[in-house]
Every structure is written in C-alpha cells, then in structure tokens.
Write a structure and sequence with these properties.
Blueprint: H1 16-21, H2 24-31, E1 38-41, H3 46-53, H4 86-90, H5 96-109, E2 112-115, H6 139-148, H7 158-161, E3 176-180, E4 189-195, E5 198-204, H8 218-233, E6 245-251, E7 258-265, H9 277-287, E8 296-298, H10 306-309, H11 333-354
Parallel strand pairs: 5-8
Antiparallel strand pairs: 1-3, 2-3, 4-5, 4-6, 6-7
The structure holds adenosine-5'-triphosphate and magnesium ion.
InterPro entries: CDC123
Region (Disordered): 63-92
Family: Belongs to the CDC123 family.
C-alpha cells in the first residue's frame, strides 16, 4: 500500500500547454488513423470571432441560398428594449472563404459534424432533425449550431479554456473542426479515464438504459477490447499531459474494436459520467503502483438506474432561447425546432426584401 506522502491529488495540476495538447488540432495528427476523418480550419478570422461573439442567432450573408441576414436577437423580446449599439445590431457578416471550405468538406464527407478546439454544439442538437443529430450539409447548418450552443462558447473564453491553470497561454487560436458525420450508435460509446498511464475506469457515455450491457459476456468482452485497444494504440502517447487523460471511444458493432472520438483533459470540466473523480482517485490509490488493475466498467444496468431516470431532456437549460418562446406554444421539441428554423429563414427573407 503506498504511503499517504505519495498520494496524488484527485486532479493532476494543469498548465496551458497541457490544455492546449487536448485541442483538436494538437492530438488529431497523432491519432488520425484511429479516429474519424476530419478537416481543421485554422486560424479563423477576427470577423468570424466577432460573429460567434455577437448576441442572437442569425446567419451571415451567403451561408445558404438566400443571401441575407436574420436578426432574431436577444433584444427583440417585445419589451421595447433597444440595443445600445446600433452598429452592432446592424453589422452584417459574410464569410465567403469559410463558406467555401465548409462546402468543400460537405462534398468530401457527405455531411459534417462541427466542433471548435474542444467543444461540439451538442447542447444545440435539437435545432436539427433528431433522426440525424448534428448532421450539417451547408454552412448555414454549421453556423446555426455554433450560434445556438452555449457549449462552444466555452472555447471562445480564455478564462474558461485555461481555468485551473496558474499561468496564461502564449498563443491560442480558435479553430473550426469539420468531422465526417456518422450515424453514431450512442449505446456503444464509452468514456475511459487514464491517470498516470493507468486505465482506471470505463463508463457508458449515453445515460440511457440498453439491455445488451447486462448480457453475460458483454462486459468481459468490452473490457478486453478497450484494454487491448488502449495498450496497442494510446498508452504511452500522452507525455504532454503526464499520462493523465480521458478518451472517448466508439465500439464497433461486434464490440471487438473501436474508434477514438475525442480526447479530454483529466480535469473537472470533463464529465466523469457514471464515476466521480473521487471514485477514480480511489481506484488509483487503493490499488497501488506496482499492481496493474483491471479497469472498472460502469454501465446503466437497469432502467431504474439514477442516470437513466434523470429523464429531463439533455441540455434543457439551453433549449428555449428567450426570443423563441412566442412561437413555442404547445409544440414538441422537434416541431418547435422546425418552427424556429423557419422563423430564422423567414426573417432572413424579410431582411433581404428590406435591402
Ligand atoms: N463525426 C460524428 N458524427 C456524428 N456524431 C458524432 C460525431 N462525433 C461525435 N458525435 C456525437 O456527438 C457527441 C459529442 O461529440 P464530442 O465528444 O466530439 O463532443 P465534445 O464537445 O467534445 O463532448 P464533451 O464535452 O463531452 O467532451 C458524441 O458523443 C457522439 O455521439
Ligand atoms: Mg470532448
């Protein structure tokens, strides 16, 4: 048993360099053959940052067939409140070069899944049809998701990105990542926690209950598949982060292999899902240094599991922009999202008629 003196903290210390090693463009080149095909657009223009930063959900000109802008902004809530910056309110954006790069990626991949350096707009998935979450086939789809998401805002804010670091980064450039879109089967997604190059825990990623996770042999097989994949492909390849990282993994249908979806810092910002970081700390500490532990696998093992019964829709807090309440009455989420999209397009049309 290791002595208390050697006991590591629950979280490893963070530096800007460690955080930056988890941005997409840093890790992807090393693991591209084990992950999803992706294109990184970097750096982005100052104008595009201003657009992402601006209030309201509206389209740049030229992002779809109708070359116009919508101004469905936070200010237009019927309260008579006027924006204190006319320039800001009427500023028009257009990104023809970026539009062209997005269209190129769409034609190369069929459809794209967008994210920024670290975060995807998964809290805005409800904006596009539920049958194909986060599937983008036009620049307008990409912009709609990015503008509707609180999660991607994390990547714009240096205070958030480097939260927990003692010093500031030397350089941080925003990037747009366009990944080939796949109909991901969420039941086969796992999140795997590695501390000091020990694979400690593996958690089901989707909080829903799936029968097959209780089938005899499934858990043993999956543990073996993940461990083998990790040992052969990932272990020892994270010296930048001192061997502390969390990776997201999508198992193949036969559960024998898989693909890397993402890497995340071993830090409070990364959701520990069915673990707590204290649980993981115990797994590291209790089992000691010279013993190679079998990782612990946690799944939602019954429909009454607390994770499965927290049945509020995911990211509910971000589902209803204030300005949209007036068109929401009595509709299901999908109807409502469709109505909101129509509303954004309608105001784009109105604006172009005004011009
Ligand atoms: N290329 C893709 N095509 C379709 N769906 C995808 C793709 N990549 C990821 N997804 C889905 O979107 C979810 C979120 O993706 P990802 O892990 O990249 O986002 P994230 O913002 O890094 O999430 P987190 O904040 O949990 O780390 C995944 O769990 C997966 O279900
Ligand atoms: Mg991630």
């Amino acid at each position: 048993m290791p002595s208390a003196v050697n006991k590591p903290d629950v979280f490893p210390s963070l530096t800007p360099e460690i955080i930056l090693s988890f941005q997409f463009s840093s890790w992807y080149p090393k693991f591209a053959s084990l992950s999803i095909k992706s294109t990184v657009i970097r750096p982005l223009t100052r104008d595009f940052l201003d657009y992402l930063d601006a209030d309201g959900v509206f389209m740049p000109e030229g992002a779809e067939d109708i070359p116009a802008e919508s101004t469905l902004s936070d200010e237009e809530d019927g309260s008579g409140y006027e924006s204190d910056s006319e320039d800001e309110e009427h500023r028009k954006f257009s990104f023809p070069e970026l539009d062209a790069k997005i269209r190129e990626a769409v034609s190369r991949y069929g459809a794209v899944f967008p994210k920024l350096n670290f975060s995807s707009p998964r809290d805005a998935a409800w904006m596009l049809p539920a049958s194909s979450p986060l599937k983008c086939v036009s620049p307008a789809d990409v912009y709609l998701l990015l503008k509707s998401s609180d999660f991607v805002q994390h990547d714009l804010n240096l205070g958030h990105v480097f939260d927990g670091c003692e010093s500031a980064p030397r350089i941080y450039d925003l990037e747009l990542v366009l990944r080939k879109w796949y109909p991901v089967d969420r039941s086969r997604e796992l999140r795997c926690f590695v501390r000091q190059e020990k694979l400690l825990g593996i958690s089901q990623r989707d909080p829903n209950y799936y029968d097959f996770w209780n089938e005899s042999g499934t858990q043993i097989k999956v543990l073996d598949s993940v461990k083998t994949f990790w040992e052969n492909n990932i272990k020892g390849k994270w010296p930048e982060a001192g061997g502390d990282y969390v990776f997201d993994f999508l198992l193949t249908r036969d559960l024998s292999r898989g693909h890397i979806i993402d890497f995340n810092p071993y830090a409070p910002r990364t959701d520990p899902l069915l673990f707590t970081y204290e649980d993981l700390h115990d797994l590291l500490f209790v089992r000691g240094d010279d013993y190679t532990p079998q990782p612990e696998l946690r799944v939602v093992d019954s429909p009454s599991h607390p994770a499965a019964t927290r049945n509020a829709p995911a990211h509910q807090h971000n589902m209803v922009p204030l300005e949209a309440l007036t068109i929401s009455s009595g509709r299901g989420v999908q109807d409502f999202a469709g109505a909101l999209r129509d509303e954004i397009r309608r105001s784009m049309q109105d604006d172009s008629d005004d011009d």
